[in-house]
Automatic annotation (TrEMBL):
<dbReference type="GO" id="GO:0060271">
    <property type="term" value="P:cilium assembly"/>
</dbReference>
<dbReference type="GO" id="GO:0005929">
    <property type="term" value="C:cilium"/>
</dbReference>
<feature type="signal peptide">
    <location>
        <begin position="1"/>
        <end position="21"/>
    </location>
</feature>
<feature type="repeat" description="WD">
    <location>
        <begin position="193"/>
        <end position="225"/>
    </location>
</feature>
<keyword id="KW-0969">Cilium</keyword>
<dbReference type="InterPro" id="IPR056456">
    <property type="entry name" value="Beta-prop_IFT80_2nd"/>
</dbReference>
<dbReference type="Pfam" id="PF00400">
    <property type="entry name" value="WD40"/>
</dbReference>
<feature type="repeat" description="WD">
    <location>
        <begin position="111"/>
        <end position="143"/>
    </location>
</feature>
<feature type="domain" description="IFT80/172/WDR35 TPR">
    <location>
        <begin position="625"/>
        <end position="771"/>
    </location>
</feature>
<dbReference type="InterPro" id="IPR036322">
    <property type="entry name" value="WD40_repeat_dom_sf"/>
</dbReference>
<dbReference type="Pfam" id="PF23387">
    <property type="entry name" value="TPR_IFT80_172"/>
</dbReference>
<keyword id="KW-0732">Signal</keyword>
<dbReference type="GO" id="GO:0005813">
    <property type="term" value="C:centrosome"/>
</dbReference>
<dbReference type="Pfam" id="PF23335">
    <property type="entry name" value="Beta-prop_IFT80_2nd"/>
</dbReference>
<keyword id="KW-0966">Cell projection</keyword>
<dbReference type="InterPro" id="IPR056157">
    <property type="entry name" value="TPR_IFT80_172_dom"/>
</dbReference>
<keyword id="KW-0853">WD repeat</keyword>
Length: 786
């Protein structure tokens, strides 16, 4: 464990001094583009702020009786397609009206909406409906053109704030000290809970992470999940929380109160606090790219801020965003410093797999860690990249309109799509990339995971998605090895962790539980090692695929770190090389490491260096390493190594089973018993039937007491009916039972059971199998299954 460290985010203020500003309290504001903002004030003016030339213009002077309270621009992204401009916004006012106002400042329509003030108005995500909340306690839903659709709720006391749910199918609103979530569908269940010790004044709901924010007169802000479970509660501050707002990408949020602006991580802890002389901050608005924030101030000012000092680390490189258009690269090995300059402000960046990918508002820059001087630069179609994911050979950009896979040479490789895809709601928990596959949780059904081929952008294999029995909350693809072995780890709503194979070629997906009470996970970038936070401790699954060959061995392959290492609920950020980076509940970064020999064992086994693998295990003398080797060898049908490894951890029954496999008369039988070893009974049976080894298939079922199936096969192939009957009889005798099964009674009538004949027949089957195998091995020039 290395020392803890805080990442500091800097809020940067631009005060417009030389131009006009508001002469009274500013109540609300909203961005049109990354460089332009509208603000409304009690001075009845609507101003437009341009951040490129630092100019302010009056858009319109409203009539003296309009005191604005809330404004919201009509959404730019509608149905996955992006409108070029934000053209209209809703403005609510104290006189009980809302107004639809054009970009030019013309009031297109005014609607009498509530008795008393209209305290809030919000468009839904696809722009098909508007919700308003009033001092009269009513919540009303309106059409796009301002026709009343319904009164959703009558709450009895003023509703100060409303927000739409991530799918625009529910409304969250304040009701006194409580929060209420009401679905639009009339019969659906309403949720209500006590949220604060004073009136709740503001709420917000993020569509990417589905988390809810609330702030109140009790001077606290809180983070909730969409089931109303409290995730974070701040300590009480000096003044009531008058504004709060999620950054659209769901990574951070801002909280405003009297002379105070706070920037927080999505988990609730505070990155930075500023104390500007602004009076109360009545409204906060983030730009669509989540890089800039504006605040509406009680003293007539509008303040702007952006986030700096973000930091990325990979191996010996540390990169810091020092200005909006500039980064500093430090090589900690030799203290060499490089400065990277960009034409436009940086929106998102990612550093992994020896490459830095930077998205600005208009371009994408790709640097190799070997050369910081000559980036590859290409234009972006949409701007506003919301997520960058990297794999070894490719990277993926997500923007409001779609997802795009690029090579590090800047070539567009594919752009996966599916029906009703909502790229704007994708975050790193529900989309995962590796060199061959992209996995996405379906936004239409959270139980479903879709897989796409990186190269073609088409659905993988037979096109069938993976449907889990519960909603999936996090997914992660492993990063190494061939595409045919690709695995996905997933955490479901019950916090159970599963491992599933991705490419299953018509067979049923293999999916096995590998952990419980798991909060989040990350795969290693250089070997298929998984780590996760399990019940507040760090667990390392050294070889998760062990569940597919020998489930019972799984616990022996885990490394569990003592929870005393962490002071409060940590989250894994990434797992690169041997280093795990975690963020604790208080915001501090901590590092943990996994022993390097685990990755080394993976490397040896994947390149079939079994002797080296055995040497390593003998040297390290770690039981879990032996357990991993046993299972890796078994998965690769490397029986001699598996036998030794199982021996080293004292698994004697398994050692015996393996030597039994080695003595099988043919490779088909050996394969079938290896499948039986890992519990794949059906696969074992069909392997034998396919090889024409009918007797052996029957015997396998006898050994497992699958009597009905054994008899069925014997009857179908007209052979060894007597063998089945004989074993059955012996079995019943042993337990002092009488035959009651109709089929067995039926067949035992006409068949003579003679053990001597049966033994002779079996001996013949086995020698036939041996002879056939010997013939085959002569033909294939002695190639052996081992
Ligand atoms: C606008 O203001 C900022 C901060 O005060 C300043 O850095 C920038 O140079 C100004 N831009 C112009 C065009 O004056
Ligand atoms: C891991 O996470 C830390 C903290 O967010 C970040 O600085 C670093 O760049 C990440 N490293 C990789 C390889 O993604
Ligand atoms: C094995 O080869 C011998 C000689 O070619 C042949 O007579 C015999 O039938 C073969 N046995 C089987 C089981 O294929």
């Amino acid at each position: 464990m290395q020392s803890a460290e805080f990442v500091i985010f800097v809020l940067f203020f631009i005060i417009f001094l030389n131009t006009s500003s508001h002469k009274d309290l500013v109540s609300c504001l909203g961005w049109t583009t990354a460089d332009e903002l509208y603000s409304c004030s009690d001075d009845h003016q609507i101003l437009k702020w341009n951040l490129v030339n630092n100019e302010t213009n009056v858009v319109v002077k409203l009539s003296e009786d309009i005191y604005p309270l809330d404004m919201h621009w009509f959404p730019k992204t509608v149905g996955g397609k992006r409108q070029t401009q934000a053209e209209i916004f809703v403005l609510t006012s104290t006189d009980g009206k809302f107004h639809l106002v054009s970009k030019m400042g013309r009031i297109e329509k005014s609607v009498d909406a509530h008795k008393g003030a209209v305290l809030a108005g919000r468009w839904n995500y696809d722009g098909t409906a508007l919700v308003t909340a009033g001092e009269d306690g009513l919540i009303k839903i309106w059409s796009k053109v301002g026709m009343l659709r319904s009164t959703l709720a009558n709450q009895g006391s003023p509703v100060y704030s409303v927000a739409w749910g991530p799918d625009s199918d529910r409304i969250l609103y304040t009701s006194g000290v409580q929060l209420t979530i009401k679905p639009l569908q009339p019969s659906a269940k309403v949720m209500q809970w006590k949220a604060h010790d004073g009136l709740v004044l503001k709420v917000d709901w993020n569509s990417v992470n589905s988390l809810i924010l609330s702030g109140g007169e009790d001077c606290k802000y809180k983070v909730w999940d969409s089931f109303g479970r409290l995730l974070h509660s701040s300590s009480p501050h000096d003044y009531p929380v008058t504004s709060l707002s999620w950054a659209p990408d769901g990574e951070m949020f801002a909280v405003g109160s009297f002379n105070t602006l706070r920037l927080c991580d999505k988990t609730g802890w505070s990155y930075a606090v500023e104390k500007p002389h602004t009076g109360s901050l009545f409204s906060l608005a983030w730009s669509a790219d989540s890089t800039q924030l504006a605040g509406a101030c009680g003293n007539g000012h509008v303040i702007f801020a952006h986030v700096l000092e973000q930091c990325w680390e990979w191996k010996n490189f540390v990169i810091t965003l020092t200005k909006r258009r500039s980064m500093q690269v430090t090589n900690v090995m030799n203290d060499a410093v490089d400065i990277l300059d960009f034409r436009d402000p940086v929106i998102k960046a990612s550093l992994a797999f020896a490459h830095l990918v930077v998205a600005t508002s208009l371009q994408c820059y790709v640097y190799s860690s070997r050369n910081w001087n000559t980036p590859l630069i290409f234009d972006l179609k949409e701007g506003t990249v919301s997520l960058i994911l990297q794999a070894e050979k490719h990277f993926l950009l997500v923007d409001g309109a779609g997802l795009y896979v690029f090579s590090y040479e800047g070539r567009l490789i594919s752009s996966p799509k599916f029906l009703d895809m909502r790229a704007d709601s994708l975050n790193a928990q529900v989309i995962s990339l590796c060199d061959d596959t992209i996995a996405i949780r379906d936004n239409r059904d959270e139980k479903v995971i879709l897989f796409f081929d990186v190269l073609t952008g088409k659905a993988v294999g037979d096109g069938n998605p993976l449907t889990h029995k519960l909603e999936v909350v996090e997914i992660a693809l492993d990063q190494c090895g061939p595409a045919t072995d690709r695995k996905i780890a997933l955490i479901d709503k019950n916090r159970d962790l599963y491992l599933a194979s991705v490419r299953h070629f018509g067979r049923e997906t293999k999916i096995c539980k590998i952990g419980t009470m798991v909060d989040n996970i990350a795969w290693n970038d250089a070997a298929n090692i998984l780590c996760g936070i399990q019940d507040n401790q760090l667990t390392v699954w050294c070889y998760p695929s062990v569940v597919f060959t020998d489930k019972e061995l799984l616990p022996k392959t885990l490394h569990i770190r003592d929870s005393s290492e962490f002071n409060s609920a940590p989250r894994i950020l990434n797992f690169s090389g041997t280093k795990v980076t975690l963020r604790q509940g208080d915001g501090s970064l901590v590092y943990s490491s996994v022993p390097p020999y685990i990755a080394l064992l993976h490397e040896y086994c994947s390149s079939a260096r079994w002797e080296d693998a055995l040497c390593l295990c003998r040297l390290v003398k770690d039981q879990s390493l032996w357990a991993c080797l046993a299972s890796m060898a078994m998965a690769n049908r490397e029986l001699t190594t598996a036998e030794m490894a199982y021996g080293a951890i004292g698994e004697l029954p398994r050692v015996e089973y393996i030597s039994m496999i080695k003595e099988q008369p043919s490779k088909e039988s050996a394969l079938a018993h290896m499948l039986l070893f890992s519990g794949q009974v059906q696969e074992a049976e069909s392997a034998l039937l396919q090889a024409g080894l009918i007797y052996q298939a029957i015997q396998v079922n006898i050994d497992l007491f699958n009597w009905e199936r054994a008899l069925e096969l014997a009857v179908k192939h007209k052979t060894h009916v007597d063998t089945v009957l004989a074993h059955r009889e012996k079995f019943l005798q042993k337990f002092g039972k009488k035959e009651t099964n109709k089929r067995f009674l039926h067949y035992s009538e006409g068949v003579d059971v003679n053990w001597e004949n049966i033994r002779a027949k079996i001996e013949m089957e086995l020698s036939k199998e041996r002879e056939k195998a010997a013939n085959a091995s002569v033909r294939s020039n002695g190639a052996s299954y081992r």
